[in-house]
Amino acid sequence: MNREERNEKVRKNLIDLFASTKLSRPLLEKHARLLVGVAKTPLDDFIHASRHAGIDLMAAVTEPGTAALYVDTELAIKLILSVGLLRTEQKKLEGPKTDKEKEERDRAVKAHRDAEGLAREVKSRGFTIEKFHEGIAKVDSPELVKRMMFSPTAAGKIVTADGKTLDPINLPTKKLNSDGQHRVRISVVEVSPSGTHAMVKLKWAEHPANAAIKDLLKRSSPLRLEYRRFKGVDNLSDLLLSLRLARREADVIVTVTRALRPSDKDLDLLVLKEFCGLRELAVAVPDDLQRIQEELWGSLR
Fold it and tell me: Hey, what's the torsion of the CAs at 97, 141, 127, 207, to 10 degrees?
């Protein structure tokens, strides 16, 4: 059925509306620019978005040969075309002048592809912070891949050999859980009055090379330890506070959640699962507290 036959069926009201869709906002905004204070989309991008929408619609039709695509007439009438004159001359993209520049460009494009692939894997169920770091370790340029994943500006500057500017990498989450529980030693810095968490520093870990733990051991700022659901010890907030006053460290079993980007380190989290060596601490801490109190108050007599 040709176009005239389709139009004739429309005029005779012999066509049924099967499905409709809106154009993709990301495609329309990809190269949009402000003209006279209003966002304008290049006509080529509008046509491209229309074709994409058309392909999606036609895919839902069992007999494409009897289908036609249409746009609401009133919406089409309201469409306004504008022409923008560039203030500066556009220059053609120049290819790399040297083999080194070509090598660096190809390496950046490969790193962008690796970063996109890893970002897709992050979406999969059960993906852990350990798997994330394993994935980075396997690529050819780990530091470049991390820069592209953690900095949208860096990824958005990559240009392929044919002049195409690559899109920034979209990480679907800011944090990932570790794949198991960890035994660590903590010193208490502060205890929340709400009785839900404490701020601690890691002093030791049973497996210090684990990707979820290793850089936390070098971290100078305190880390959040949550215990709101922990039922193993009564008055846990007071117990942790006594550890801080006695300057005692404690071994605990925790789960770990880590931020992907260094700038999101406030999302790093330990959740208390088990308190180790409580009997030994029950003997040592009261003696320490008594000695510290005597030293403190004795100096004021």
Answer: -160
C-alpha distances in Å from residue 149, one per residue of 116, 139, 265:
8, 13, 16
- Cα-atom radius of gyration of the chain, to the nearest Å? 30
Q: Which residue, among 225, 228, 204, has the nearest Cα to 269 in the 3D structure?
A: 225
Between β-strands 197-205 and 249-259, what pairing exists: parallel, antiparallel or unpaired? unpaired
**pTM, rounded to two decimals:** 0.64
Which residue matches tokens 């009564």? Answer: 234
Sequence-ordered list of residues with C-beta below 8 angstroms from that of 36, at least 6 positions apart, any chain: none
pLDDT in tens, 88-142: 554 444 555 577 888 888 898 899 999 999 999 998 888 999 999 999 999 999 9
Give me 131's structure tokens.
Answer: 């798997």
| Overall average pLDDT of the 171-200 stretch | 95
Q: How far apart are CA 118 and CA 293, in angstroms?
A: 55
